[in-house]
Amino acid sequence: QVQLVESGGGSVQSGGSLRLSCAASASSVSLNCMGWFREVSGKEREEVVAFRVSDGRTSYAESVMGRFTISQDFAKNTLTLQMNSLKPEDTGMYYCAAARNCPVLTGRLSLKPYGIDYWGQGTQVTVSS
Q1: What is the pLDDT along the chain (129 residues), one digit of tens a residue?
Q2: What is the largest CA-CA distance in the chain?
Q3: Which terminal residue of the chain has fewer beta carbons within 10 Å of its beta carbon, N or C?
């Protein structure tokens, strides 16, 4: 069983930055795919970024491309999401996710096709205008 614990959420003004971290309780090597999703009340959970550990391939949602950057610290089993130039529409609950498989579909890596194996508890991000 793997536990994912997020931290780093908070409130910021538009144009500001936040850094989210996801600490895994077990070696992330056994989990080939990790990523971040976000959820806004009343809407479907959106995949923000997918990262494949085996080759470092990354795919970002178009809405965050160029503003968000994912990185991994293998020694600390930690996944970090650096979020810059934040907008009010980035507001939501952010969840760390892990999956054993993440295929490339229509040119984009995704954790969704074979299902998410583990979810974190979520951390709230609020961006005010």
Answers
A1: 788 999 999 999 999 999 999 998 865 556 789 999 999 888 899 999 999 988 889 999 999 999 999 998 877 788 999 999 999 999 999 999 999 889 998 999 999 888 899 999 999 999 999
A2: 41
A3: N
Residue among 75, 45, 91 at smallest CA distance from 83: 91
Beta pairing, strands 123-128 & 104-105:
unpaired
- Strands 10-13, 123-128: pairing kind: parallel
User: How far is residue 80's CA from residue 116's CA, in Å, rounded to a whole number?
Assistant: 18
Query: Do the Cβ atoms of 122 and 7 come closer than 8 Å?
Result: no
Q: Scanning the structure block, which residue is given the tokens 């096709």?
A: 113
Burial 29-43 (b: 16+ CB within 10 A, else e): eebbbbbbbbeeeee
> Could you tell me if residue 30 is left (phi over 0), alpha (psi between -120 and 50 degrees) or otherwise beta?
alpha
